């Protein structure tokens, strides 16, 4: 994982799985190859194996349970995700909240397996405390802006700048900004404010031309990163 980090969450949209899921994934992969920028896709568990085999995208689960093997019906263990080809997972998304101890357990288990973890938080005050758990990245997303098309980088830039101040208190953890990101301009602003990348969902998954949208996001991310001197 290195800047610019582009993370696309498929959620459970109609085009997040099956042939529609493959179609949009191929378009995202095309952009990734064109710009030479790895793109992380956080996908339904049923798509992890197929996408890891049929694309060069970095495939994440949308959630894992930091549990041991055993009588844990319905659980998705990090070992299962890795066996299916997954490279990491989101944790604690606003639509899938879990307890702090569960976050910690999952991070530890994934780290032992060589997997990446991205922990979601809904306010900058949590960035430092979550960063102490040593995930690979923190994704800050004010829930009131998720899916609105109103970018956090425009509506609440102070959320990013304050989160940047907090992430500096820990070493080796990246900061990703999300919620309402819809355009390359939004991405550029978020990285200009100090984020190492962005997380998006509906802007891509609901787009009439997802390839064009992803291309815009990635190209502007590269420009912003170059300006910052990475």
Rounded Rg? 16 Å
General form: globular
CATH architecture: Alpha-Beta Barrel
Estimated structural class: alpha/beta
Order of strands across the main sheet: 1-2-3-4-5-6-7-8
Show unreliable segments. Answer: none
Helix and strand run: EHEHEHEHEHEHHEHEHH
| CATH fold call | TIM Barrel
What's the CATH class label? Alpha Beta
Annotation, overall tally of beta strands: 8
Give the amount of beta strand, in percent. 15-25%
Roughly what is the average pLDDT, rounded to an integer? 92
Number of domains: 1
Roughly how much helix do the residues carry, as a percent range?
A: 40-55%
Number of helical regions: 10
Gap from first CA to last CA: 13 Å
Biggest sheet layout: 8 strands, parallel, barrel
CATH homologous superfamily heading: Aldolase class I
Overview of the molecule:
Belongs to the triosephosphate isomerase family. Helix content is 42%, strand content 16%. The mean pLDDT is 92. An eight-stranded parallel beta barrel has the order 1-2-3-4-5-6-7-8, surrounded by six helices. It has a single domain (5-228), classed as Alpha-Beta Barrel (TIM Barrel). It has ten helices and eight strands. With 230 residues, it is of the alpha/beta class.
